[in-house]
Structure to design on (603 residues):
């Protein structure tokens, strides 16, 4: 039973070795490096002012549909930070979020960002054309977001599914967004009022997605029409436009 | 001095991993087994505590086919998981154990099981090893306690040597048995169907198959969301609208969550032509019955999957031609190389 302890010791030894090598390097390298912090993004899901609760018919959208949410899965990619001085830092990465799997809500980018003041955070909702190709994600759960070749190929940007109560008749809705017939429907957006300070060893930025906003502005959507839309480019464009303001800044 | 100590500890640590019951008289050198993963398939996660070896796979195959694991020496795993039927139970709706008692669910196929992240229709086990622990002692299956199974194997003229070759020990227990069976199951890969050959550019689809492909991979049929990826399963759970109320609660029995009522694991569609009858209770005898159900037979219940878009129209409403085309496509997932693969067959037939 003492195997784990030995494993820890092995890790400690490797760490010591790495530190020793790092120490050697340092003595040969006089250039001072800018102080940096590791950047993480945390995604929270809200409806109006409250945290999203799954599987409960307790929400009402701008059209007046009562609705519940059962599935929320999406990709965020290519995070861009703009410093107060106007420098841009691009983090070329993709991250999958499943609203029902809290382990996916934190995106540890691994990027070391210079300390200081930043004026905004931008990212792509979905995946850009160069990335959104078959084989990008060989393994589940990301691979389960596949968007079939017959409808454009690559991966869904989002699966947002649930039920709506239409005068006592329960209908399913599926806001599945993606590259419908190769139309590039990903959203390049800058989170409003997202100025922040990077300090210490690590900084975590909180980004909030308001589910109600997917159905509201500028297109008020009847959830009974948000079904089987993977081949419906008109609906894709409506959701793309509505997606511009679903994200808000939740601080660091 | 410290580094000398550390070196000794490292050596001790490595040695500690080499086998469970080191025997200084005997050397144990298992042969690593290199899995052949078809192009485009996901990475297969092999548990750290059960690396694939040739000896382990061969032993697992023997155990899979050996009725020694049942109390009456009549049933083996293969009794209900027969190769000619895609490792399902010989066309039976439900399986019957050694005491003549039938189970309540259709025997699941063992096809590309190495990629499964949940086992059983209700997903109650996360690994092949933990799955394999269940049928042997189950009173309505092989009905042999693991203590008695281990005693039989330990007293057997051949198995202690075979377990030594696979695991470096002659003291057999249930964990060694399920590890060997899991290793064999991880080799049971199906990736050479007509569909795979089509993806590799080796064959063309017929007109009917191509039309069926279009139905399968668009929201007209909308099969692909659950029968997803190259494995043709998402390995997760859905209420696909079989019943308006449930005699079998499925995933709910495992989680206790009322949102999981009537949800069952998506089965792979690979080799589906061999694995009739269909659904968790084997209620549909033919693929035609299944497609009719998705076309017109859906039943509403509160946990109906949101992907069942046409629930209030009873289903996807295909014409007879469309149904035939869809089935023609699904038949391209048949892989005769898998069904006929001698490496998955009964090793006792050759002895």
């Amino acid at each position: 039973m003492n195997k784990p302890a030995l494993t820890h010791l092995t890790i400690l030894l490797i760490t010591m070795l790495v530190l020793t090598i790092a120490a050697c390097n340092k003595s040969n390298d006089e250039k001072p490096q800018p102080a940096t912090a590791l950047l993480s993004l945390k995604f929270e899901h809200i409806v109006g002012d409250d945290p999203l609760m799954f599987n409960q018919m307790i929400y009402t959208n701008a059209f007046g549909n009562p609705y519940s949410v059962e599935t929320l899965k999406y990709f965020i990619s290519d995070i861009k930070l703009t410093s107060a001085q106007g420098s841009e830092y691009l983090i070329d990465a993709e991250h999958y979020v499943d609203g029902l799997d809290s382990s996916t809500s934190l995106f540890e980018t691994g990027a070391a960002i210079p300390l200081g003041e930043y004026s905004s955070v931008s990212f792509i909702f979905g995946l850009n054309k160069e990335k959104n190709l078959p084989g990008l994600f060989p393994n589940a759960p990301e691979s389960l977001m596949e968007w079939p070749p017959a409808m454009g190929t690559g991966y869904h940007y989002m699966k947002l599914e649930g039920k709506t109560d239409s005068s006592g008749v329960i209908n399913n809705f599926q806001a599945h967004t993606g590259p419908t017939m190769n139309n590039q429907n990903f959203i390049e957006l800058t989170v409003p009022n997202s100025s922040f300070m990077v300090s210490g060893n690590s900084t975590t930025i909180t980004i909030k997605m308001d589910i109600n906003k997917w159905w509201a502005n500028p297109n008020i959507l009847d959830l009974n029409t948000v079904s089987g839309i993977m081949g419906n480019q008109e609906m894709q464009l409506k959701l793309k436009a509505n997606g511009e303001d679903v994200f808000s800044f939740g601080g660091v | 001095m410290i580094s000398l100590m550390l070196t000794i500890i490292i050596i001790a640590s490595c040695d500690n991993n080499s086998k469970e019951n080191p025997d200084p008289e005997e050397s144990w050198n298992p042969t690593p087994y290199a899995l052949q993963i078809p192009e485009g398939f996901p990475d297969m996660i092999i548990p750290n505590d059960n690396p694939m070896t040739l000896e382990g796979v061969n032993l697992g195959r023997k155990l899979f086919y050996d009725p020694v694991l049942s109390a009456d020496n009549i049933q083996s795993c293969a009794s209900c998981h027969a190769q000619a039927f895609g490792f399902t139970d010989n066309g039976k709706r439900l399986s019957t154990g050694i005491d003549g008692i039938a189970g309540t669910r259709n025997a699941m196929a063992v096809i590309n099981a190495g990629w499964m992240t949940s086992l059983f229709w209700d997903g109650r086990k996360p690994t092949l090893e933990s799955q394999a622990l269940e049928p042997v002692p189950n009173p309505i299956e092989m009905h042999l306690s693991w203590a008695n199974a281990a005693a039989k194997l330990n007293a057997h003229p051949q198995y202690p040597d075979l377990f030594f070759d696979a695991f470096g020990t002659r003291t057999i227990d249930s964990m060694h048995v399920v590890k060997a069976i899991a290793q064999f199951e991880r080799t049971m890969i199906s990736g050479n169907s007509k569909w795979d050959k089509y993806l590799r550019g080796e064959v063309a689809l017929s007109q009917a198959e191509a039309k069926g492909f279009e139905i399968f991979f668009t929201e007209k049929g909308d099969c692909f969301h659950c029968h997803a990826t190259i494995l043709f399963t998402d390995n997760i759970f859905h209420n696909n609208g079989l019943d308006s109320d449930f005699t079998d609660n499925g995933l709910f029995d495992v989680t206790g969550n009322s949102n999981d009522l009537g949800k069952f694991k998506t089965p792979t569609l690979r080799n589906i032509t061999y694995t009739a009858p269909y659904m968790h209770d084997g209620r549909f005898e033919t693929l035609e019955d299944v497609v009719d159900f998705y076309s017109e037979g859906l039943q509403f219940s509160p946990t109906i999957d949101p992907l069942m878009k046409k629930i209030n129209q009873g289903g996807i409403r295909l014409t007879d031609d469309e149904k035939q085309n869809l089935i023609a496509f699904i038949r391209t997932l048949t892989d005769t190389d898998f069904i006929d693969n001698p490496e998955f067959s009964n090793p006792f037939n050759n002895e």
Summary: Chain B has two domains: 51-189, 194-336. Chain B touches chain A through 35 residues (CB under 8 Å). The first strand of chain B starts at residue 237 and ends at 238. The mean pLDDT of chain B is 93.
